[in-house]
Amino acid sequence: MAELAEAKAQYQINAARLKDTKIISPVGGKISQPEARVGDITKSSQALFTIIENNRLELQVKIPETQLTLIRPGQTVKITSDADSNLKLQGKVREIEPIVDETSRQATVAVDLPRQTALKPGMFLSVDIVTNSSRTLTAPMNAVLPQTDGSYLGFAE
């Protein structure tokens, strides 16, 4: 009878260990960068895989800490590529990571990219983020004449 109890206990221990070997993703997608290998012992905070969720790509942009206050989630981002001069896209800032890198003094800003067949993981893209704009009145230089008192006189056609 003691052998049966010991076997049941050993079975429960092994079943619990087997349960701990399963990795279940909260999202569907493709594994693009496996970080862990079979047999590795990992920590709970360690990344095991990078998953591309249903072909959704994001652009990770490094922003200096001095400019972080100018960036907001939902802000429009203009995206271009040096490899393809025809590639001109717009993305939206999804998230600003809360931690600034101590060495570079930069934070990562995640930008959601539109679904495009031309985009591939690992591509190098350039980003323009408009942080300030204002409306001003402009005139051609030949329509403005300086006056002797320091003022200017403008002419309209």
TrEMBL record:
MF annotations from Gene Ontology: efflux transmembrane transporter activity
InterPro entries, sorted: Beta-barrel_RND_2, RND_pump_MFP
Residues annotated as domain CusB-like beta-barrel: 59-131
GO CC terms in record: efflux pump complex
NCBIfam families on file: RND_mfp (TIGR01730)
Family: Belongs to the membrane fusion protein (MFP) (TC 8.A.1) family.
Protein name per its UniProtKB record: Similar to Multidrug resistance efflux pump
Species: Crocosphaera watsonii WH 8501
Highest classification ranks of the organism: Bacteria, Bacillati, Cyanobacteriota, Cyanophyceae, Oscillatoriophycideae
